[in-house]
């Protein structure tokens, strides 16, 4: 689950193109540093997952470590981060296939029309039930890993464009210096969003205290190494100069397939789309559950609580999720690049992906701080495991967020950190109001926002 939401193919085929305008040929270095940073940031998550296995995941960890108000803010940030994934993928699928169809067939189907197809299929599978969605996602995940790693091995086997070099694994390869590395890091971090998903299965797996932490760490390490190797192979395959010219509309892996293994062209195209769709499916399933549960608990309009009597699925919540994804994708695309140009769809993914990454990073900060405080107050504090690593992970994520505010100079990216700050302030104000007026509802609302685990929340806080 964790590995599938990270989406190895989509993260390898597309996310680097959003880093390369900033970090250029040093993008493999950025991914390597990001892998190390995420492993450190995961330390607090792993410790809390081992100590408090729960479907509430981050909400539970932060609430137990820092209190229900911080837990509510955590839930609000998670909700925003995962709600933006489906519309981001609608834009990316549309942009990628519009560019592909134009080059392969000479046709020019607008990206937004193409994006409606996966959005509709997403809703159809959700109507059929969670089993259909998960089975489809598992098949697509297996396919994408085989294709992306296979093509990377072929590129390396051919010796690349100008011979193999480790220079892309050094910071000096960045054409824009430290500023470029900092901004490129955020898009690299987007590739790791979802690694924590296994933590939400704490109530459903055997031996959760052992299995869940192991799943989180193995997912980060395995998928992270795939990223570093494949993106290093990409830079070597294209060459330094060509890599530095990439942008969000580029399709470098199509070019690599055409150059090094023409028979891989269509497998790459299929794996690219399947990976995007798998991410869309997994994220939309979570949002649907949250909307449905919030409807049942009176936190959102009651129609969202409706369950289809035949399929036993939350049909109105599914429709709301699909409609939100389509409207937001088309709105952002129309404003940022137009509905007829693939740049519009590409910008949807770039903007929303950047924004959701900035939304999830504070969650990692809060969880690591919660881990340090929880174990310090429990009397079982160990300096490295519960102090150095969690506080180090929190510091790295804070440094990244601050760096974005100070170093970012390209609009509209300069605005996005402030949008997250505003959202945090609003969530904190909402938590303060609930704490004073409806304290029991505060804990319930935070649990719902974080994981849709309302049944457990009701028992815990005595609501319902």
Q: Which structural class matches the secondary elements?
A: mainly alpha
What's the overall average pLDDT, rounded? 82
Strand content: under 5%
**Biggest sheet details:** none
The low-confidence runs, each spanning 5 or more residues with pLDDT under 50, are 452-464
Run of helices and strands: HHHHHHHHHHHHHHHHHHHH
Protein name: APC family permease
Keywords: Membrane, Transmembrane, Transmembrane helix
Membrane topology: Multi-pass membrane protein
InterPro entries: AA-permease/SLC12A_dom, APC_superfamily
What can you tell me about this protein's structure?
- The protein has 464 residues and is mainly alpha-helical.
- The protein has helices at residues 2-6, 8-13, 15-23, 27-51, 58-66, 68-83, 85-105, 111-128, 130-157, 177-192, 208-238, 240-244, 252-260, 265-296, 315-336, 342-378, 383-407, 416-437, 439-451, 454-461.
- Helix 5 runs antiparallel to helix 6 (68-83).
- It is 77% helix and 0% strand.
- The chain starts with a helix and ends with a helix.
- The chain is globular and about 60 Å long.
- Residues 24-374 form the Amino acid permease/ SLC12A domain.
- Pfam families: AA_permease.
């Amino acid at each position: 689950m964790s590995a599938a939401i990270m989406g190895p193919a989509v993260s390898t085929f597309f996310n680097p193109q959003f880093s390369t305008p900033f970090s250029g040929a040093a993008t493999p270095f950025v991914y390597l540093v990001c892998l190390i940073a995420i492993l450190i940031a995961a330390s607090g998550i792993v410790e809390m997952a081992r100590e408090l296995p729960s479907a509430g995941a981050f909400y539970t960890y932060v609430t137990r470590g820092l209190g229900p108000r911080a837990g509510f803010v955590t839930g609000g940030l998670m909700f925003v981060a995962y709600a933006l994934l489906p519309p981001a993928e609608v834009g990316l699928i549309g942009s990628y296939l519009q560019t592909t169809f134009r080059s392969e067939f000479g046709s020019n189907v607008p990206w937004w029309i193409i994006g409606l197809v996966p959005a509709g299929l997403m809703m159809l599978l959700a109507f059929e039930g969670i089993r259909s969605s998960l089975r489809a996602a598992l098949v697509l995940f297996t396919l994408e890993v085989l294709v992306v790693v296979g093509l990377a091995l072929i590129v390396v086997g051919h010796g690349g464009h100008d011979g193999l070099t480790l220079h892309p694994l050094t910071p000096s390869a960045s054409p824009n210096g430290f500023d470029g590395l900092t901004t490129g890091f955020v898009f690299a971090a987007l590739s790791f969003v979802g690694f924590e998903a296994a933590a939400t299965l704490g109530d459903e797996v055997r031996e959760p205290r052992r299995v869940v932490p192991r799943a989180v760490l193995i997912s980060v390490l395995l998928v992270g190494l795939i990223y570093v190797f494949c993106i290093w192979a990409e830079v070597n395959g294209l060459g330094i100069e060509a890599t530095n010219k990439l942008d969000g509309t580029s399709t470098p892996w199509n070019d690599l397939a055409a150059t090094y293994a023409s028979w891989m062209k269509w497998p790459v195209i299929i794996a690219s789309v399947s990976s995007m769709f798998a991410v869309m499916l997994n994220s939309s399933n979570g949002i649907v559950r949250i909307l449905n549960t919030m409807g049942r608990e009176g936190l959102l309009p009651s129609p969202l609580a409706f369950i289809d009597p035949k399929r036993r699925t939350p049909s109105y919540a599914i429709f709301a999720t699909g409609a939100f994804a389509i409207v937001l994708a088309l709105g952002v695309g129309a404003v940022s690049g137009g509905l007829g140009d693939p740049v519009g769809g590409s910008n949807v993914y770039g903007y929303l992906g950047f924004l959701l990454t900035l939304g999830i990073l504070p969650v990692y900060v809060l969880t690591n701080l919660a881990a340090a405080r929880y174990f310090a107050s429990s009397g079982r504090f160990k300096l490295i495991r519960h102090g150095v690593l969690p506080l180090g992970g929190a510091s790295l994520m804070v440094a990244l967020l601050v760096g974005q505010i100070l170093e970012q100079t390209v609009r509209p990216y300069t605005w996005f950190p402030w949008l997250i700050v505003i959202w945090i302030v609003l969530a904190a104000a909402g938590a303060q109001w609930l704490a004073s007026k409806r304290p029991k509802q505060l804990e319930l609302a935070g649990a719902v926002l974080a994981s849709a685990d309302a049944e457990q929340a009701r028992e815990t806080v005595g609501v319902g």
